[in-house]
Amino acid sequence: MAPAAPKSGDVIFASVDRVNAELFTLTYGAIVRQLITDLEEVEEVNKQLDQMGYNIGVRLVDEFLAKSNVSRCVDFRETAEVIAKVGFKMFLGVTASVTNWDAEGTTCSLILEDNPLVDFVELPDTCQGLHYCNILSGVVRGALEMVSMKTEVTWLRDMLRGDDIFELQVKLLKQVPEEYPYKDDE
Amino acid sequence: MAPAAPKSGDVIFASVDRVNAELFTLTYGAIVRQLITDLEEVEEVNKQLDQMGYNIGVRLVDEFLAKSNVSRCVDFRETAEVIAKVGFKMFLGVTASVTNWDAEGTTCSLILEDNPLVDFVELPDTCQGLHYCNILSGVVRGALEMVSMKTEVTWLRDMLRGDDIFELQVKLLKQVPEEYPYKDDE
């Protein structure tokens, strides 16, 4: 039997269970506030958000592969497109665009113009070093690690810091295809 | 002009921005885990989750009133029904039922058979005193306080503790109608 065709992010997003985005936004805001209170140092909060995101990404990848019918991507370029168009849509309800590729095809940027995490958010002066959305960079890193791509994920632009968009740079450090946890014919 | 008719929870839920429920579930799980690590005492975690929920409820009530076209409820009975049928549906995508009323009509239970917060969750033995969903009791308490109903909200049954349903008891302590922040004709 031919494998099922990959589904679009819109189709998957329409079919999964969802909760109200404002509830999610406020709940995420409550986490960040809690971490700032508990950890005090903004750099520590950034690290902790990234680690929480990593743990989430490691688990979300299962739902992603199960629901999207996406099979193994041929290369990092295709992987980046799938994250931007299917992954972001499926989980956050928004799509990203992929740009700023380097010559080797191992570094690119995901551009988000709309980001439900930051609705109603303004950073006070005391939090200027905060990467408020660092959970997202962690999710991307964790999810990619589960499909054997070790990456470094960095915010280059951040609307909460006055930029006009969110730009998340994803740099492929190492790819270990044989550790891929799913076989195509399973 | 006649006021717009109240909308059903289904209609509102279909119209608001949403995110993937699994992302929400895992993000909430990450908060709880973080609080357990930081605060150590389960009782403190319960308090903190309730307080976070309270802060969220205080803000969510605005979106609720704006989107639902619900006007002032005539009494606590009607309020409880609106929370169960419209509020829960609008934010979590599930409805609750209202039962176990006392003779005075000031105490009732909201029954949840399905709760997206606890998908995939199992409590380890070290967390047996934890009210994992305490954010919800806080949300209900905070939202009701914004419409001038001071309440006490307590979990009577909890599926993570082996019960067959979630039962959230809501007890009206005090009602101060004149502090209601919205006039019907606004």
TrEMBL record, chains A, B:
Cellular component (GO) terms are: endoplasmic reticulum; Golgi apparatus; TRAPP complex
The organism is Perilla frutescens var. hirtella (Perilla citriodora)
Q: Which family does it belong to?
A: Belongs to the TRAPP small subunits family. BET3 subfamily.
Q: What is this protein called?
A: Trafficking protein particle complex subunit
Assembly description: Homodimer.
Q: Where in the cell is it found?
A: Endoplasmic reticulum; Golgi apparatus, cis-Golgi network
Q: What does this protein do?
A: May play a role in vesicular transport from endoplasmic reticulum to Golgi.
Instruction: Indicate whether Repeat appears among the record's keywords.
Output: no
Family matches, as Pfam families: TRAPP (PF04051)
The record, for SUPFAM superfamilies, names: Ligand-binding domain in the NO signalling and Golgi transport
Q: Which UniProt keywords apply?
A: Endoplasmic reticulum, ER-Golgi transport, Golgi apparatus, Transport
Q: Which InterPro entries match?
A: Bet3, NO_sig/Golgi_transp_ligand-bd, TRAPP_component
Question: Would the keyword DNA repair be found if you checked this record's keyword annotation?
Answer: no
